[in-house]
Write a structure and sequence with these properties.
Strand content: under 5%
Number of helices: 21
Radius of gyration: 26 Å
Distance between the termini: 61 Å
Structural class: mainly alpha
Helix content: over 70%
Largest sheet: 2 strands, antiparallel
Amino acid sequence: MDLIFSAIEILMRWDVALALLAGSVGGVLIGAIPGVGPAVAIAILLPATFSMDPIVGLTVLLGIYGSSMYGGAIPAILINTPGTAVNALTTYDGYPMTARGEPQRALSLAYSASFFGGIFSVICLILFAPVLARIAPMFGSREIFLAALLGLILVVVAHRGQALIAGALACFGIFLQTIGLEPVKYTQRYTFGQDFLGGGINLIVVVLGLFAISQAFVLLTDEDEKVRMTRLRGGMFQGLRELTRHPRVAGVSASFGVLMGMVPGVGEFTAQFMSYTYAQKTSKRPQDFGNGSSEGLIAAETANNAVPAAAMVPLLALGIPGEALTAMMLSVFYVHNVVPGPGLFQNDMDFVVALYLALLVLNVLVLLFLLFATKSLIQVVRIPNRFLGVCILTLSFVGVYSLRNSATDCVMAAAFGILGYVLKRLSLPAVPIILGMVLGGIMEVKLRAAMARVKEPFDFIDRPVAFILFLLIIIVLAVHILRVLKDHKELKEAEWQTNSASTSFGSLMWRRKNSFLKDHGKRVRARHSKLLRRLTDLF
């Protein structure tokens, strides 16, 4: 209890309370504007948070991160356009509800499910905090290196169908991190005699370029969309009552969100689809999914809002970010000399609990704000794309210049903005570059520290936690290779079927073979079921 009271005392400061309010309301507004998203907003705000106290800056960023998904459900439900990328699944059942005249029911249900997911996640993490505090001291240099390597591998293999390019981009991020003075002997690497490269490439410059400036280019080059709004009628509190009729779906979906959030590189999308699939498979009305099912909407919104609090676990416990947003937050820690990892749980446990309580209060503030302000808030979806693009571009360059008052940083940010724009147009991921820069630095430092105690290769994994992490790396790689081989085999079979079906005779023989096998299978199953009934009657 003393720990909780100490955390509450941290949150009772006026600047922390103001940061909570600004982050929660601002995150909802940003999430409700299609094409912006939390990554762009956090990238723009990063330079401003460096002058704040760690708890204040992180509270603002957490507010935007946690509440943007609430706001992203508004355009997803009303105009079939997700406000953030993770709200794409919300359109499956949210917009059909709007189409049949139930927009207020869909919004209320989405808010309630999001609130439950967020609160469930924070409560789980507060309860698990003492366990994490005991486990954290077991992580030394070797364990943190292996955990960072595992996180990087998970990020790469999570991009199914793009694992090779994701790996190449992650290596590019690691290369960017090596430019400048190396951290042990302070010798110059890859500077080519240029003074502006002596200090390395700033992570914030890369973040603003890849996410904010590139998104501004996308908004400036795309045409403005004509939005047709649906008038809202009725109360917004009915979703809270309806959520109580589906406790199983809500509980399982929140659990998926917590578990997937803790795994680096997995995040909201995997949690959403696992939850949605589970809800559909166990529903009494699976045919309603995709046509306005309340269970489908609950599964999607509960899972994605349970992830943000859980994603803070690898960041706080090991100092390892699992995605771009937590990588940005890591820079706030470093600026204020607050080092996430085992020492944070041992020495500043009240700070960790204060962050979790901030997420708890954040969810309450967002729910109250949305229940009373949705009818006015929906007007933000009418903001023209090009106006947004100009605003984002201006704020991005102001943020970059304010870092070191350097025009060179602005040029580098513009270059990374062009790279990010190309990646967006080619539908390639930019996140591996950021995580490669962050995790590459951690891996280099920890590997050098660990090698001082390693004489033989097996000495690196001679401790239990290190051995477990090594096994996880092997398992992840093995599963990914098997999945790639299976996909390759299925592709070959599909090509063979296409070639066989190219002639009328081959197509006819293929259809007859499939029809024979299907009919034969039905007869065998019917014979077995008949025999089983006879045996049951006998005994």
